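Researcher: Watch the backbone:
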Amino acid sequence: MNSKRRYIPRKNRKPRSRPPVKPGSDKSLKKIFASIGVPKKKPFTPDRFQSEAVEAIKKADCLVTAPTGAGKTWIAVEAIRQVFAAGGRAWYASPLKALTNAKYQEFSEIFGGENLGILTGDRKENTDAPILVGTTEILRNQLYDAMHRGENISTDLVVLDEAHYLGDYDRGVVWEETMIYLPSRIPLLMLSATIGNARQIADWLESIRSRKCTTIEEKNRPVPLFPLFLHPSGTLFPLLNQTDKKKQLHRKASGFVKEGKDQRRSFRGQAPPVPDLLRILDKYDLLPAIFFLKSRADCDNALTAGATFSSSEDETRRENRKKRIAELVAKVPHIAGHKQMQILKQKGLGAHHSGQLPAWKIIIETLMTEGYLDAVFATSTVAAGVNFPARSIVFFNSDRFNGREFSPLTPTEFHQMTGRAGRRGMDKIGFALAVPGRYMDISYVARLVHARATDVISQIKINFSMTLNLLLSHHPEQIRDLLDKSFATYQFKQTDKKEKTSGGRYQDTEFLWQNFLHHLEFLKKKDYVSKDDTLTDDGIWASQLRIDHPLMVAEGFRANLFPESDPALLAAVMASLVNERETDDASIPPEKISDGLQEAFAMVSEGLMPFSSELEDAGFAAPVLYMRPALALYNWANGDDWEDVLAFWDSAEGDLAMLIMRTADNLRHIGNLSGVFPAAANSAKQAIDGILRDPVVSAIAPEANNHTDL
């Protein structure tokens, strides 16, 4: 008898049935689960690190690093309160517009709305108020303007929230510039997630600001975290051996890893059984939970699968959830017909990712924070910047998409995600559940639990906007001194010159300077900078275009390529300049494109083509212009229905909303050029009013999600 296994083509194979998943738990967890509950209410008393930070900022700069949810906001409030009580002014900067809006509402309730102003680009209110809340980009731009005018920025304290963004690949440059340009007379309070090199950052700041910088590091979580491992049979085990000081894998998890190639013991590459997981979590009182998944589609598919789950919630909670949803939806009628609405209402489950409209995400965040949801299926982006707590978080992957590629979770990313597990004042303990699967390395996740926080690495880079704005107020040699103050330069000097700075962009201290000279040479060639290294008239107004592709827009104005007197057409061509998504223009029916749009788009795309080639020949990036985003914005600006525009756009509505908001940002900068291009500036302002409407911007106020981590 031939013992060899007969090969069956994959398409002819019958799918093997998955073994039943039965909820169970290891007996060692009985004591742990018994500790689940709500802590007793008691008067708020600041933790030691909070009090120390408030005292430190009185006489020095201060960098506070603490776990997510540890109470960093309280420090900011008390520091601002001290300055405000003394008649001073404070500036609070955050990375996200949503977070800025939430903090504006929160601080208004504390200090009074008349004392608060907000600056996000989208909102510009009460800008002379003693307390300003805004995005870090706006603060950086104010520093540019102050240097240009030879003035000091009018504030007595700057708070940089989420200061670990200093190491963000795309936006870290803004944080670094802000720290470099901020006058040393102004105290700087930085609030950060746990990072590995806080003292190095503080030493760098002391070296460039000639001012002491105190570091206050809190490593203890406000709510203890217990990591769990889910065996494919449905049994929960501790992830780590609780009696082993080395914190090695629990024997069951270790055994599973050793037998990991045995497909019978895994989920066989299939999607995890979401309803079964929900039943397991529900049985052991581990809800509400945040499920972190790899992609938007995974989130939506998990939500659909979870719709068969019936929780143990009572009817009163379900009815209260429906009433709360009705209150929120009344402010955004468009959301009422959302395809996931019934699951949200009936099951208390939601999906949260960048493909969703901002208004929908606010509703999900609000309901989760207020205790109306059992689970949310989200991408890892929800871990940063949004106060979005749960009792448990569930991992399916040990890597994440960083905007360019999938890479293993860093310790800081892992701790930010697990920081959502365990709600301060609502939970005695939080849980992190690792679920085996195709993209899960159980051993790696176990190491992350107690891993040292990731170092922040400088991500500063030269661009045309920075070059133009520095030349407003500095000669090149002065700019060289500024670049020598960069964190990148400091880190390189601290590193063995035979090695790269780990994760950094540069390999020597001259790179930034040479890169600046490269940008300067091109600006001189195009007559934005004169031979004596000062800005020409064109360079001065172009410096106000603090956008991704300022020279493309500037060249468009120089060559009179833009439809300056038509708001809808101007919005359309700006959309093609900000769009980063490759689109299929060939499939657009010609009759869908009006003659006016066709002519305007052709003028811009063909007119800028030679300049794009010059940029690329010089080694600089130039955007590829597509008709589809232009047509989508043109139709939207002309009042077309959202669903019609979305159907044409042929992508997630969150992507369309983001395109519209980024287009509005570009138009806002054009609106600042009224002294040079009055017709275009006027059209830009009209276009903004036409495209920032429901459901892109909604009447759901940020106060709906004003829960704080005080």
Summary: The first helix runs from residue 30 to 34. Confidence is low (pLDDT under 50) at residues 1-8, 261-265, 701-710.
